Amino acid sequence: MVEWIISDGLTDYAEALRFMEARVDAISRGEAEDCIWLLEHPPLYTAGTSAKSADLIDPDRFPVFEARRGGEYTYHGPGQRVAYVMLDVAKRGRDVRQFVKDLETWVIATLDTFNVKGEIREGRVGVWVQRPEKPLHADGNPAEDKIAALGIRLRKWVSFHGMSINVDPDLSHFEGIVPCGITDHGVTSLVDLGLPVTMNDLDVALRQTFDRTM
Q: What pTM was estimated for this model as a whole?
């Protein structure tokens, strides 16, 4: 069983960390169900365990938090759906690589419900979409923009942190960092792609695709 929580408004990041810490401990003790928490944060940057100080371009723009999850710098803010996944990975085979792949598959299946083809790229974390209307990339391949970021942490085989999908955030807010350490690709959102998708639309799609991918 998985409990789904959907929070309205903007959730304080420190409050979210406290909730996840407590819930993960309770799940590991067998005292709580797995949980997926869907929310939005006020504008902020988070630093993963691999974050490089040089990738924080504008440190005074928004608050910066040490996330203690995998990955580098990411942005969270209004118009972006954050999905915190507090799941017992031990019951899912104790395969961390497969668990991350399942999360990616979940995002891709969710995007597919809006006829958006999300793709994974070797050496680039997250989910990407091709932008054929843009000039070719320097390597001669079609331009690609990131639409979703992933970063998890495990404690006693229970996951927390998770992923974020851009619905309609202010894309200029990403300019204060090098997102996930990647300098030569852009960032997009469902609305930026021309799709009038709401946060509720995305939440419905996430729930519909969860059972067949996770």
A: 0.93
